[in-house]
Amino acid sequence: MPDSSRTLEPPSSPREERIKQPYIPEFDGLRALSILVVITVHMHDRVWRFLWGQYGVTIFFVLSGYLITMLALREEGKRGRVSLKAFFTRRCFRIFPLYYAVLGLYALLIFVVGMSPLKRPSFEISLPYFLFYFQEIPFFYDIIPAGSEPVFGQTWSLGIEEKFYLVWPIVMFGPLGLIKRARVAACAALAAAFAAGPLFNHAGTGRMVFSYYHIAIGGMLAFVSHAPAGAAMLRRLRNNLAGAAIVAMTLALQLSRSRLENYYLAYGVDVLYSIAIAALIAHVLFGENAFIRFLGARPLVWIGKLSYGMYLVHMLVITGCDKIIKPGSGRPELWVLAYLAAVAGSCCLAWVFAVVLERPLIRVGRDLSRRFLDRASGRKVADQTELAPHVV
Length: 392
Description:
Layout: H1 4-7, H2 14-17, H3 25-42, H4 55-79, H5 84-113, H6 120-131, H7 136-141, H8 156-172, H9 183-195, H10 197-200, H11 204-226, H12 228-234, H13 240-257, H14 263-286, H15 290-295, H16 298-305, H17 307-324, H18 332-391
């Protein structure tokens, strides 16, 4: 006999329920688009500049801020608190092994094989920062000697991200975890403070501080969408008209950015772009249309799963491609061929790293994290059992 109470509940679409799921394939589709435009930045034929591939990193930042914060909120809701030990264990096994493996490959190629002599001086100076995970310092403060080519510089964003996550869960799920209503306001205040960085300093420090703004916007989206009232507000973005407007605004900002020469106008577009990406993520969570189905297509999802490895190795692959397809030919067909070769080579090398190193160690990190959580849950149950007679 059917449960009559269920028939009285309003039906909910699968899309609305997906906000509760631990894995959303369309987010890997977004990662795929991000890495595909990031690669254009480092192609030595500058014809791709109109795409402003730097915004690929912004997409990574906003999406990462959302996902990390949302997963922490779910853990808090399920277990009552966030285990920082489990959180940092997962992050370490997710990020560090592949990063240091690729860094070791660079050291082998530059110091032993003698690849790209012009890169050696910058690599020698930057290596201590790379080893101690301060990759953003060489990037933002221009310590590379004149005449030397930068190497492994794209990892600046990882230095930004990991330092953010070193502090973010401690603040948001530590002291502010006790005052949950204050977290959205605190997150908004932090985002505003980070956004103001370039207004006070146009150079390295201001731009470095501004990078944290994008991640904070993603975190704020997580806090808003996790609250019932916030989720109800964001559901207004699910219709096709809203989705089309969000996609059009995002593309307009991205395609216009390379043409902006005024510093403050460019800065304003940078600020708006993160908000547009947050709106796009909300639309993916609640909407259903052709664009979202495109993001969930298997080829894009596959590339998205490899995106971290591709981000680490793509400049190495581009260097190899340049030896086969020389940049500066002035031939559009060779520009496209060089780009496709860089993408294909990055996919292949990232896949090898994923199978051999990345995925096995991610599983190790998850297993260790689960053990820490289970032990914490066991202690909590034991404490409750001991207290039960007194409560009664």
